[in-house]
Amino acid sequence: MKRLLLVCLLGLAGTAAAYVLPGGAILRRLVEAREELHLVGAKVEGTLALSGGAMAEFSNQLPEYRTDAAFLLRVPGRCRLDATTPEGKPLAVVEAGGRRRVEGPTVAALGVAVQEVCALLALRSASEGDARSGLEQHLRALKVDTQKTALGRLGGQVVYVLGGDKPTDSQLCVFKESFLPARMRFTDDKGVAWDVRFSDYASPATGGWFPRLLEVSRGTELQARFTTVRGDSHASVPERLF
After folding, report:
1. Considering the domain boundaries, does residue 130 fall inside one?
2. DSSP at 53
3. Residue 185 placed within a domain
4. 62/54 Cα distance (integer angstroms)
5. 88 in helix, strand or coil?
6. Which residues are CB-neighbours of 137 under 8 A, at least 6 positions away?
7. How remote is the C-alpha of 97 from its chain's centroid?
8. What is the crossing angle of helices 128-141 and 108-121, to 10°?
9. Which of 18, 36, 99, 196 has a Cα-to-Cα distance from 111 of 20 to 30 A?
10. Along the 242 residues of the chain, how does pLDDT read in single tens digits?
């Protein structure tokens, strides 16, 4: 009898350990985590490194390029990345209400970076349901199957994985403990595969509301890396910038 009881308890423990939240619950917790920050305007300063195919989009054919850069967020759903070109000219990518504009040369990797920062980190609305609906719409557009969920590991941390498990399937990864976005993988309408990674929210530079590292790869080639130096979660960000 004791042996049977032990087997039953081990079975229950295994079932509990294997339980994975459904997609809707994961997205709800992600939205709640952003809502609790009460962000309105925010500024993140850092360095931007471009390499690989991203450099081919400039007239100056350097193998790589580094510049000071800044993300500006006006929540919800308005984001801007300011940087400079190798020639010293202004470069900006702006996303507002799902519409994008570029000031200066177009660099696809930077457009993807701003798109995902806006969709995953600039969430806030009058009702949690509205924000979640917008996030779900974004994931549908990228063909992420939110009905499929699993546990995985990324950078040594446990993550929830939303989406299919094939190498070509779109996926959103969310850190299990914090419900912060960890990775977005998708193929755009031109057939280009993108991989966006958000790393190290524990950095004192932003206090957990923005990652220290934001990396964008096209296929397996790293094209853009933004490294946070400092952040202000109560910055005054003028509406005219968007």
Report:
1. yes
2. G
3. no
4. 10
5. coil
6. none
7. 17
8. 150
9. 36
10. 445 444 333 343 443 455 899 999 999 999 999 999 999 999 999 999 999 999 988 866 788 999 999 999 999 999 999 999 999 999 999 999 889 999 999 999 999 999 999 999 998 654 445 667 889 999 999 999 999 999 999 999 999 999 999 999 999 999 999 999 999 999 999 999 999 999 999 999 888 899 999 999 999 999 999 999 999 999 999 999 99
Closest CA to 85 of 108, 109, 69: 69
| Lookup: tokens for 226 | 């933004």
Residues facing 209 on adjacent strands:
none
Find the Cα–Cα–Cα–Cα dihedral 202, 203, 204, 208, rounded to 10°. Answer: -50
| CA–CA dist 22, 8 (Å, integer) | 25
CATH number at residue 55: 2.50.20
Q: Which residue in the block uniquely carries the two structure tokens 């996303």?
A: 95
pTM of the model: 0.89
Q: Count structural domains, the chain.
A: 1
The answer to whether position 44 is within a domain reads yes
Q: Would you call 43 helix, strand, or coil by DSSP?
A: strand
Angle at 223 between CA 220 and CA 225, to 5 degrees: 115
- Residue-range definition of the domain harbouring residue 97: 25-141+192-228
- In a domain, residue 85? The reply is yes
